[in-house]
Structures
1.
Amino acid sequence: MLAFALEKRFPGFRLEVALEVQAGEVLALLGPSGSGKSTLLKLIAGLLPPDRGLVRLGPLDLTPLPPEKRGVGFLFQDYALFPHLSVAENIAFPLVEARWPKARREERVQELLSRMELSPHARKRPEALSGGEKQRVALARALAARPRLLLLDEPLGALDLRLREELLFFLRKTLREEGVTTLLVTHDQKEAFLLAARVAVLREGKLVQVGTPEAVYARPKDVWTARFLGHKNLLGPEESVRLGLPPRLHLLPPRALRLGGDWAGVVEERLFYGNRVGLWVRARGVRLYLEAEEGPEEGGEVGLHLDLAQAVALEG
């Protein structure tokens, strides 16, 4: 199990986070730019010294150890591959540093080349690879020495949308097969939800909420978290009253709204997404959003079904 309680101060910013990650678990640190996610990874990896705190991995206190002694694999957003080494040599590098016997080293490199679908590229230099291939080489190198802990800093952030979609599921499969305790940093909720068993939401250096992706998404703690996670139907006290709810802040989750019901509404905006449409509908003076396979044009009238029992009360 990974356990840490760390504090780091910078001018105008203070990071203070305590968390536990179970052995073999993938936990995502989710938050906007500047929330302290990458700084936290660097503290755990030993690349930055904390102002105070500790990092434990099982019974071992990592806090006084230098990065190379922590048994941690680190995947940076820019991959940081060695340009003068081949793909196979990049993957083998941490094994050479760890003095693995040659036969065992070659066996592990071949295993990772096969798993990462890189065998045809084994002798190529990084400059000859695509962005997706570089990402897989960097991941293979991070996993090569079978680290006790894997740290991923925006692992898909440098890729275009098509490659991110493709490699997201590849990364998910790889992490499950390796079974290594993993801490993932991302600002993308889709990545966090698909890759992690739990997510920890950070804001301005502080932990806001921790839980399974389903629980955090369904019941965000406050308005900021709900908005960050992409929820659109956030009701102020006055809007809540208009819909028949108590006079406080509420979230209407997506499953609480659908077309076909007794609530009369008018479509103010229609957004075409290809396989679905997004509809902004005005009902009882409140602007609400829902998605459907199809819907009327702007200005059209619709009937809405609202399940107010699913409304979530929020903190300010």
2.
Amino acid sequence: MSLLNNKVAIVTGAGSGIGRAVAESYAREGAKVIVSDINETHGEETVSLIKKAGGEAFFVKADSSSAEENKKLVDATVTKYGRLDIACNNAGIGGPAALTGEYDIAGWDKVIAINLSGVFYGCRYQLEQMEKNGGGVIVNMASIHGTVAAPMSVAYTAAKHGVVGLTKNIAAEYGQKNIRCNAVGPGYIHTPLLDDNLNEEQMKAVAAKATMNRLGKVEEIANLVVFLSSDQSSFTTGAYYIADGGYTTI
């Protein structure tokens, strides 16, 4: 099946984890993928994986917290392919851990800059181009913490709630312009970020937070993103899809 045949798609934060899985899945479904990341080595690795599997991709280094670099990313895409059909704004960070009353100001600024402002900057220029195309699809990566608290991570929680609100606003404004926008809220997913920061015992504790008693797989999130990016979800916009193994059901 080629759900995204000949579509042109940007994925930010595509150098690892969920972003890489989304980029690879887009390519498998026939899209030409623009892989973007702040880490050039990781981004080029994703491109290499896609090409080895027979897909088409190229890398653009960009800092998602910069409005200017988000614009350059879209410009590079249009220069290469002449259009932009799909964007998955995935880049994000966790930030420092502290009580709200003790939270580092610089840490707050950085998390908000990448996780919220960066998503807005991406959407700002993606929407501009999609209007020229006559339509498009945006999928913004939120989190379960776009609806529930993440104690000791106030900036992350605030940013992800903001991403959900941003997504709904875009859907309301652009529904009659053939542009859809949805958000995905992953729970705890097995990524290099968890491997680098948690030991085995902590990993089991995190997995136990889900009623399915396991961590999610990046492919499971990527499959949802592909669905929302394709015509199979053609009547879906402004929605916030949680994929958390049951974490938020209790």
3.
Amino acid sequence: MLSLRSINQFYGQNHILWDVDLDLSPGTCTGVVGSTGMGKTTLVNCIMGHLPINSGSITWQEGNLPPLDLLHQPVERRAALGIGYVPQGRQIFSQLSVEDNLHIALLSGAGEARQRGIPPMVFELFPLIWSLRHRRSGDLSLDEQQQLALARALVLQPRLLILDEPVEGMSPWLEEEMGNLIHRLNHDFGLTILLLEQRISFIRKVADYFLLLHRGRGVARGEVAQLNESMVDTWLTTQSTG
């Protein structure tokens, strides 16, 4: 579905990503693991087109269709292709209503998506969002804002959903609820999920595969069962210097 090869990215003179490889197969959940400042969000910004890469390739392919060079696709086109993104911090339009936030998300889709409107599955997954649809988004609780951010990403019915630190600041109870939701999206709705996260316990609960980033390099990868304590001690207890 999505394949990254030898991705290198610079910020000014600073080399941020070093020859990063990543493969996402349809229907899987992959966790990109790393401490703060190790390149997780930069990697996703490259996928979404918010940051240019200096070398490497990003390829998108669906079913038996020919592979598509994602680097030649504008930012707005990537959402229309079927890539949903929930950024760190949610970034909802706080002055607008919940319903307005959802309709704005529809505008980034193709004409067919706009005509269909908000899919019923959004309100099936988030019944609270329906009851709050006329509420100003900035007045929502942290959990409600996170639900809105997810609902907004799902209105275009993506095939790949990217979540950046989805349980940041959440209580253990809310973290459990988020884990159940991600599991449902992945297993019941068949979404491919790319999850950026620092909490190893959460990755182990929901992901099938992992990529461990340290200072912009992919230092370990594999099935999530292989993400052992030795790797955690070696790579995730080291503090970022950048």
